[in-house]
Design brief:
alpha+beta; 5-stranded antiparallel beta sheet; 7 strands; elongated
C-alpha cells in the first residue's frame, strides 16, 4: 500500500518538475562536491583527511639511480637521517593533516602547531614545513570560492523561473500552463554559470599540475626514503564539479536558443 502511494505521488510530482529544476539539482550537487574539495584536511572528522591535494610520507624503497646524479651516494645519508620515521603529511586547501606513527590524523591550518606535536624522530626531513610551503605558496582556493558563490546566485535565478500552474481557458476548462522564463534572467544565469565553470576549470588544472609537479620533485629529493602521491578523491571532486557546471551551462544555452527559436517561429 505504501509503495502504491509513493508511486502515485511520484506520478503527480514528475510532470511538475521543470527543465530548470534538473539544472538546479546539478548545480546543488556541484556546489556540494566543490565544498567538500575545499574542506579537505581542514579537520580530523571521518573522511575529511582522505580529501587531499598531495601527500608526503616516509617509506623506504630502492632508490633510483641516474647518470645525471652528481652524488648518488646521498641516498644513504638521507636514509640514515630518516631512520625509522613513518610520518605522513597531507595537504588540503585550508589545512594540513599529519599522521606521526600510523595512527589517527592530526589536522590544523597551523603548521607550527602540528610541528610542535611531532618529535624530531617523526619528521627528520621537515616534511610538515615542506607541506606548509606548498599550501601557502602554491595552493589558491579563492577561484573555487568565487565559483561556488556564482553558482549559488545562478541557482537562485533558476529558482525564479516560472513553473507549471493551472489556468482556465475560454471554455471554462482548466489546463496546465508554463510560461517562458525571462530572457534577461536566463542570460544572466548563463553568464554566471559560464564564469563559474571557467574558474573551476582553471583551479582544477592548477591543482592537478601543481600537485603532480610538487609530488614528483619531493619524491626525487627524498630518493629512497620519501614517497609522495596526489589525492585521487580531490581530483575526482574537482573534475566532477567542473563537468556538472559545464552540463548546466550547455543546458541553459540550449534552453535559451530553443526559446528564441520558438519566439521567431511564433512571430512568423
Amino acid at each position: 500500500m505504501a509503495t502504491l502511494r509513493f508511486s502515485l505521488g511520484m506520478q503527480r510530482l514528475v510532470p511538475f518538475l521543470g527543465y530548470h529544476h534538473v539544472l538546479m539539482i546539478l548545480i546543488a550537487i556541484a556546489i556540494v562536491l566543490l565544498s567538500l574539495l575545499l574542506a579537505g584536511c581542514s579537520s580530523s572528522s571521518p573522511g575529511i583527511p582522505g580529501i587531499f591535494l598531495i601527500s608526503l610520507y616516509y617509506l623506504p624503497y630502492p632508490p633510483v639511480f641516474d647518470t645525471a646524479q652528481v652524488d648518488p651516494g646521498v641516498t644513504n645519508a638521507i636514509a640514515n637521517i630518516v631512520g625509522r620515521a613513518q610520518l605522513e603529511v597531507r595537504v588540503g586547501y585550508f589545512g594540513i593533516c599529519v599522521n606521526p606513527d600510523g595512527g589517527s590524523f592530526l589536522c590544523s591550518n597551523n603548521a607550527s602547531a602540528l610541528a610542535a606535536q611531532v618529535s624530531v624522530d617523526h619528521d627528520p626531513l621537515n616534511l610538515i614545513w615542506v607541506a606548509s610551503t606548498f599550501k601557502d605558496a602554491i595552493v589558491f582556493p579563492y577561484l573555487i570560492i568565487v565559483a561556488i558563490i556564482l553558482a549559488f546566485v545562478c541557482f537562485i535565478l533558476l529558482a525564479t523561473f516560472p513553473g507549471w500552474h493551472e489556468e482556465t481557458d475560454e471554455r471554462g476548462s482548466e489546463r496546465d500552463v508554463k510560461p517562458f522564463p525571462s530572457r534577461p534572467v536566463s542570460q544572466s544565469a548563463l553568464a554566471l554559470i559560464f564564469i563559474a565553470s571557467v574558474f573551476v576549470l582553471v583551479s582544477v588544472l592548477w591543482q592537478h599540475t601543481a600537485s603532480v609537479a610538487a609530488s614528483t620533485i619531493a619524491q626525487d629529493l627524498g630518493n629512497g626514503s620519501v614517497q609522495s602521491g596526489v589525492g585521487t578523491t580531490a581530483m575526482v571532486l574537482g573534475w566532477f564539479g567542473f563537468a556538472l557546471l559545464i552540463v548546466v551551462t550547455i543546458g541553459l544555452l540550449v534552453m535559451i536558443l530553443s526559446i528564441k527559436l520558438l519566439d521567431e517561429l511564433v512571430d512568423e
